[in-house]
Design a protein that fits this description.
- This protein is mostly beta strands.
- It has no helices and six strands.
- It has one domain.
- Helices cover about 0% and strands about 45% of the residues.
- The strands form two sheets. It has a four-stranded antiparallel beta sheet with strand order 3-4-5-6, with no helix packed on it. Strands 1-2 form a two-stranded antiparallel ribbon.
- It is globular and about 40 Å long.
- The N and C termini lie far apart (about 35 Å).
């Protein structure tokens, strides 16, 4: 399965692909204060983080059993 994450500019211009990879991404969360994107990947059992433009991708957690959803606690950080 090949997945594309796209960014849609507010000015209505063309969408831009920020991530393309194969697996089963599910949960997604955006931390506006830190300009970061978080998502879980059900196919490989990992949790990732990147900048909003898809750069600086980092694996946060591994060996998860079917991660599906993400909730950010931006109050307590």
């Amino acid at each position: 399965m090949l997945v594309f994450r796209k960014k849609y500019p507010l000015d209505g211009s063309d969408a831009e692909v920020i991530m393309a990879y194969g697996s089963y991404p599910f949960g997604i969360a955006i931390d506006i204060e830190r300009d970061q994107l978080y998502w879980s990947d059900n196919g490989i059992g990992k949790l990732f983080r990147s900048d909003l433009d898809g750069s600086n991708r980092t694996t946060i957690l591994t060996d998860l059993m079917y991660p599906m959803a993400i909730a950010l606690d931006t109050t307590n950080k």
